[in-house]
Amino acid sequence: MDYYILSYSHKNTDITTREKLSLDIKSQKTAEFLKDLVDNKFIAEAVILSTCNRIEFILNVQNATKAEGFLLDKLSVLSGIALESLKERADSYENVSAIHHLFSVASSLDSLVVGETQIAGQLKSAFKFSYEMGCCGLYLSRAIHFAFRCAASVRNSTSISQNSVSVASTAVAKAKEVLGNLSGKEALVIGAGEMSAICAKHLVSANCAVILINRDFQNAENVCKSILDGNPNVKIRVESFKDIGKYINAIPLLFSATGAPHTIITKDMVAKRDWNRYWFDLAMPRDIANDIIELQDNIKIFAVDDLEDIVRKNLALREEQARIAYGIVGRSTQEFFSWLQTLNVEPLIKTIRALAKDSALKELQKGIAKGYLPKDYEKNIEKTLHNAFNTFLHGLTMNLKSVSNTPKGDSVVESLRFLLDLESEDKMLESYKCEYAQDKALSQS
Asked: For residue 118, what is the DSSP state?
């Protein structure tokens, strides 16, 4: 079985194409797509990570070429993009390079904003969705847990995530760059997810008055309360989503980051105004119809990819820390494959038998040397001892083989290695299943 990743990101794919490829991890369409992938005989497990700047198909496959061909065909039908175009744009990774890429993504080194902190949560959600669907098992669970472990090492060993940044905070920084001081200004934030909440927090910190609207009023209220946190000086309030038309035509500064599968601000909703408007569309697929800019030349729409200049400045500041982080990713990749090798039960069984035989023969020689046992009986006693430890180890051997390809197997193997003092390095045990998988297993036990 091989690890394989097909990747479309801000590095190789424009936002229009990414929009067509994006998959909401909570949608029925994504669930069906995942099921179709793992129903293919060449694909055993699959996780789909879809964010505003990337879509990653993380697979465990029997044949990478066949799996890639099937996946690309499915993507072409799903997105309406020509197969050849999808092939040209895609970056594909296999085994060592796939794990290195996964670890880089989890550590936010491959993000549009290097060091952003949202990617770990997005990967965890993608894993959770696939795990619940029964599309993610032993092999991808191991890799994704190790990816989180690598990301934690990067955070703890570098300052790359200090003064944490995100696409949302970068958008607010861009607004400051365009408009100057935001203090005393008003902004409309649409959505109540993590991206919108981060936008609102940064705007409030800049002393900007925020109006928050969302289709689910209660979710918007919850975000508002978390930002207010009992501080009467914070300027944020929630308004009804049905008034979206009123507010987009009254407030010059707008940030939108909903999970809607279609545009929520269309050309017919926009009234002409004689003042400049600055709209930041952070959703994928986009919330704001692209043809709105044809209506008025004083509407400027910034999408995720339009934040590149601030991103470049961010990357330059973090360049040295990124080099250190990539070193950690490289070492973690090597450690992962070394760890996988230790999980092979056949060498462990041979080692256990060799240890048993060695101990038995040593004690036999001691008995002969001290006169407890006659030398003439050495071969017969040796055969008897051999039969005894074979009988004793038979059940252990059978159980070890039967459990080796289950989630419980890694824990058993590593426990045995520890008890027999075969390894002194840190062990993964069952924690490779990730925090979510552990919680799920406990709830079902």
From this structure: S
